[in-house]
C-alpha cells in the first residue's frame, strides 16, 4: 500500500472540489504524429481499485471503504487539440457486461486499445472489470465520445507480495481532443450496489466510478 500512495500523489493537485478532491492534469511530453497532423502529446495515468483503501478517499477508505473506485482522483484535465494517451491499471475483478457494446474500444485512435501490451479492438464481454467512458454534455460544441473496456482480474489471481491486490491489467489508449469543453466520464459496467442492476452506490456517486474531464 505504501508504494501505491507514492504513485497516486504524482501530478496530484489539491483543490476545493468537496467530496471529490483533487485534480489530475495530463502531462504534455513532446508532440505526436496523428491522423490530424502533429499535435501536443499529453499523458494521464489512472487506476481502478476493488475497494476505496486506495485512490482519493483516504487510507481508511473514507465513508465507503468497500466501494470500488477510480484513482488517484476522478477530476481530470487534458489539453485541447492534443493527442491524449491514458494508461489505466485495473486491479478489480468483474464479470459479464450488460451491454456488449461497452466491451469494445470506441473513439480511440485506430479504434484500438493496448491490453497488457497487446493491441485489441475489444475484450471478452464476460470478463469486464470496468469501463472508462467519456461523454459530451449537450452543450459541448466538440463532441467527444471515447469508451474503453478494462478486463477483469481473475478471482483466483494471487496477491502481489506486499500488496492488497493482485497484479493489474494495464490498458493504454489514445484519443484526440477538439476545442475546450467540459465532459463527463463514467463506468458502464454495473459494478456498484443496489437493486437496479448494480448501478447504485459507487456507480451513482461522483468520485468513485464517474467524474469530470475538462479540455482546456
Ligand atoms: Cu465500474
Can you offer a commentary on this structure?
The structure is a single chain. The protein is mainly β and 216 residues long. Helix content is 3%, strand content 38%. It is built from one helix and 14 strands. The protein is globular and about 45 Å long. Bound molecules: copper (II) ion (CU). Residues 68, 130, 187, 189, 191, 209 line the site of copper (II) ion.
Which small molecules are bound?
copper (II) ion
**CATH superfamily descriptor:** Cupredoxins -  blue copper proteins
User: How many strands appear in the DSSP assignment?
Assistant: 14
Low-confidence parts: 1-19
Task: Compute the CA-based radius of gyration.
Answer: 16 Å
Q: Give the helix tally.
A: 1
Provide the fold topology:
Layout: H1 2-8, E1 12-13, E2 23-25, E3 27-34, E4 37-49, E5 69-71, E6 75-78, E7 83-90, E8 113-115, E9 118-120, E10 128-136, E11 146-151, E12 169-176, E13 181-186, E14 210-215
Parallel strand pairs: 2-6, 4-7, 6-14
Antiparallel strand pairs: 1-2, 3-4, 4-5, 7-12, 8-9, 8-12, 10-11, 10-13, 13-14
Bound molecules: copper (II) ion.
Amino acid at each position: 500500500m505504501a508504494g501505491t500512495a507514492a504513485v497516486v500523489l504524482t501530478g496530484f493537485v489539491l483543490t476545493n472540489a468537496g467530496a471529490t478532491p483533487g485534480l489530475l492534469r495530463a502531462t504534455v511530453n513532446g508532440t505526436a504524429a496523428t491522423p490530424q497532423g502533429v499535435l501536443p502529446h499529453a499523458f494521464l495515468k489512472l487506476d481502478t481499485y476493488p475497494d476505496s483503501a486506495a485512490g482519493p478517499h483516504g487510507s481508511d477508505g473514507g465513508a465507503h471503504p468497500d466501494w470500488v473506485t477510480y484513482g488517484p482522483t476522478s477530476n481530470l484535465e487534458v489539453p485541447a487539440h492534443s493527442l491524449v494517451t491514458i494508461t489505466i491499471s485495473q486491479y478489480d475483478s468483474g464479470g459479464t457486461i450488460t451491454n456488449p457494446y461497452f466491451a469494445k474500444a470506441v473513439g480511440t485512435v485506430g479504434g484500438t486499445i493496448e491490453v497488457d501490451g497487446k493491441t485489441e479492438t475489444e475484450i471478452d464481454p464476460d470478463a469486464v472489470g470496468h469501463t472508462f467512458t467519456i461523454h459530451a454534455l449537450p452543450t459541448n460544441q466538440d463532441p467527444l465520445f471515447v469508451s474503453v473496456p478494462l478486463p477483469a482480474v481473475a478471482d483466483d489471481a494471487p496477491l502481489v507480495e506486499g500488496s492488497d491486490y493482485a497484479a493489474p491489467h494495464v490498458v493504454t489508449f489514445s484519443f484526440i481532443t477538439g476545442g475546450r469543453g467540459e465532459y463527463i466520464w463514467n463506468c458502464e459496467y454495473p459494478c456498484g450496489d443496489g437493486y437496479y442492476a448494480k448501478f447504485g452506490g459507487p456507480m451513482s456517486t461522483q468520485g468513485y466510478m464517474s467524474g469530470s474531464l475538462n479540455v482546456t
